[in-house]
Amino acid sequence: MRLRYPSNIKIIKLPCTGKVDVIHLLRSFEKGADGVYVLGCLEGACQFNNGNIRARKRVEQAQKILDSVGIGGERVKMYNLSSSEAPLFARIATEMTEKIMEMGPNPIKLRKKAA
Amino acid sequence: MIVAEKKPIEEIIESIKSYNKILIAGCNECVTVCEAGGKKEVAILASALRMYFMNQGRDVKIDEVTLERQCDHEYLEELRNNVDMYDAVVSLACGVGVQFMAEKYFNKPIYPGVNTCFLGAAEERGVWGERCQACGQCILGKTAGICPVSRCAKRVLNGPCGGSTKGSCEINKDIKCAWQLIIDRLKELNKMEDYEYLTPIKDWSTDRAGGPRKVVREDVRQ
Amino acid sequence: MSTKTPSKLEKILSAGHLAVTSEVGPPRGSDAEAIKKKAEILRNHVDAINITDNQTSVTRLCSLASCIHLKLMGIEPTLQMVVRDRNRIALQSDILGAASFDIHNILCLSGDHQSFGDQPKGQNVFDLDSMQLIQTARYMRDEGKFLGGEEIKRPPKMFVGAAANPFADPFEIRVPRLAKKIAAGVEFIQTQCIYNLDKFEEWMRLARDRGLHEKCYIMAGVTPFKNAGMANYMKTRVPGMDVPDEVVKRMKGVPKEKQAEEGIKICIETIQRLKECEGVRGFHIMAIEWEDKVPGIVEAAGLYPRPKVE
User: Fold this and answer.
1) Does this model's pTM top 0.90?
2) Which cofactors must be present for this protein to function (chain C) (predicted)?
3) How many CA atoms lie within 13 A of C275 on its CB side?
4) What is the pLDDT of residue B190?
C-alpha cells in the first residue's frame, strides 16, 4: 500500500502490549520523549486474553502521573487496531504526531537542553 | 498482610519539595504484595518525582532502594552507610516501617509514601478487604471463623443489628453483613445452636484501648 | 410476672393491661419547649414516652436531659440509650444519672451508624453491644454492682427494654435473636414499625412456640404514614423496614389530601388486628413529628382511657 506516516516515530516492538509497564512509559518521558502511544490488538482479540486491557489501564495510570507532575497526561495514549488495518495505523501516527506538535515539546527535554 | 494505598503524588511532593537529595525506600513485604510500596512502585514514584523537579528546573537527586523488610533491624541496617547522602527519605513501607526507619535514623527526616489501611487479604485482583483489627483476644472460634470486630461496622459481638439487609451492611450495600456471613457459615457447619451463645462483654484492654501494645517472649528473647 | 421496679410501664404490663407508649425526638437546639409541648400532647394517652438518643446519628439535645424534663412534668420517660457514642464508663454513669431522677425505664439499642448522620467523620465507640447493655443495666439493678464488680450505692431501678426487628434479615434468626435478648435479661420489647402483619404474626407464632412471649412483654411498634411518599421512602430507603406493596398501593390509591387520614386508618387497623395476636402486650406508637395524631389513634384503637396503677 506504500502508506506514509510521520518519520519521527520510533517503534518499539513487543510480543504483547501487556508487556508495557507504567515505568516504561514514564522512563520514555524522563528521557525526553514528547509523546508515547501504545498500539494494541482490538479489545477482545488479545492472544493472551487481556494483555491489551492491562496496557490500557497502565496507560491511564501514566496519564494521571504525567498530569500530577506537570508534563501532561495527553502525551500518552492507547489505541487498538488489528494487524490488517494499515491505513488506520498511518492515521493514528499522524493524529498523535499532530496532537503532540500542538502540545509542543516535552518540557523536561527543554530543561535538559537549557542545562 | 498489612494493606496500604499509595499517597497522591501531589501530597508527597508537598512534603519533600524543600530537599535536594531524596531516597525513596520500598519494602519487599506486604506493601509489595498489595502493590503500594514495592520495587515497582518505588521506580514509578522516583521517575515521577524526577520529572517533577526537572520540570521545575531543579536538580534534585532521587535514588531508589527496596529493602527486604523495613520492620527488621538487620535489613534497615543496610542503609546505614549511605543514608547520610540524603536530605530525606520517603518510605513506601507501612506505618511500622516508616517509624522503624525514623527510630533508627534519628536525625533524618522520614516521610510516608503510603497510607497504611488495615490488616487484610486480596479478595480478588485489585481488591483488598479488611479481616483483622488485631484486638489481641481472638474470638473467631466462637464466630464461625468470621470476625465481627473487623467486619461489622458496629463491631457488634451479638449481631446482626437491625440494619442487616439482604446480606448487606446498613452503611453500604457493597459491604457484606458480617453477621449474615457468620450465620451462613454456622448453618454450613451445622452449628446454628452456637448462634444463641451470648458473647460476653469484651475486654478491650488488649485492643487499642489498652495503649501501645507489646508482645514479650522470654523464651526467644536474647 | 411480678414487678421488680417502680416503673409505671412495668406495672401496667404486669397487671395485664395493653400498654401504650410513644416517642419524642429531642430538638436540634437547647430549647426544651419543643419536648415539653410534644410530651404534653401525649400526657394522658400513653403510659410512657421514649426519648430517642441522637436518632439516625444526628446530633440533638441529649436523651437523658430530655427525660429529666419529662420527669419534672410528671410524665414517665423511657431513656433510649445507644452504644454508639459512649463507652461502659459513660453508659453506667448516665444510667446512674437517670436513676438519680427516678427514671425507671431504659431501652437498650445499638444506634444507627454515624455515617448516616451529621457527623460522618466522627469516631464511634461500640464498647458494648445492645445485648451487653441489657446485661449491664440488669446487673447494675439486680446485683447492685458496677461492671467492675464494685458496689453501687442506691442502685438504679430500671425496667429494661430493647428493640426487636421481626423483619430484618436474616429472618431465620429473628426469633433466636429475641431469645438471646431475653437471655441477656430484657424485660420488654418494642418492635420495629409493623406494616407486614402476616410476617409479624409469623414471627410472634415462632416466638410463642418457644414460650418467649411469656418471658418478656412484647409491644408492637406502629408508625402512621403521613402520605404515600413516606410509605415509599420507608419501603425503599430505610434499612430493615418491610412495607408490603399493597400498603404502598393503598396509600397511593387515595387523593393526596386524604392520604394522612388513610395512613392513620391503616395504623388503627394494625393495632386492632394485633390486639388479637397472642403475645402482643402493648403498642409503641412512633408518630414522627406527628405527635398530635397519637391521642386520636389511641382513642380510635380502643386503648383509651389509660389504666391507673399504684
Assistant:
1) yes
2) FAD
3) 14
4) 96
Q: What is the structure's pLDDT at C238?
A: 86
If DSSP codes are grouped into helix, strand and coil, which group holds residue B173? Answer: strand
Is A108 in Cβ contact with B43 (below 8 Å)? no
> B2-118 has which CATH code?
3.40.50.2300
* pLDDT single digits (tens) C11-53: 999 999 999 999 999 999 999 999 999 999 999 999 999 999 9
Asked if residues B110 and B76 have their Cβ atoms less than 8 Å apart, the reply is no
Identity of the residue numbered B135: C
The CATH number assigned to the domain with range C8-300 reads: 3.20.20.220
Chain B residues interacting with chain A (CB cutoff of 8 angstroms): 8-10, 13, 40, 43-44, 47-52, 54-57, 59
Q: Which chain A residues are within 8 Å of B52, Cβ to Cβ?
A: 68-70
What is the rounded average pLDDT for all residues in chain C?
Answer: 96
Could you tell me the mean pLDDT of each successive run of 10 residues in chain B, 222 residues long?
98 98 98 98 98 96 98 96 97 98 97 98 96 96 96 97 90 95 97 94 96 96 90
The answer to whether the Cβ–Cβ distance between A108 and B47 falls below 8 Å is no
Kindly state whether residue A23 falls inside one of the protein's structural domains.
Answer: yes
Mean pLDDT computed over A85-103:
95
The segment(s) of chain B belonging to CATH 3.40.50.2300 are 2-118
Which value does ipTM take for this structure? Answer: 0.93
Residue at A31 is within a domain: yes
Which one, of B163, B168, B173, lies nearest residue C239 by Cα? B163
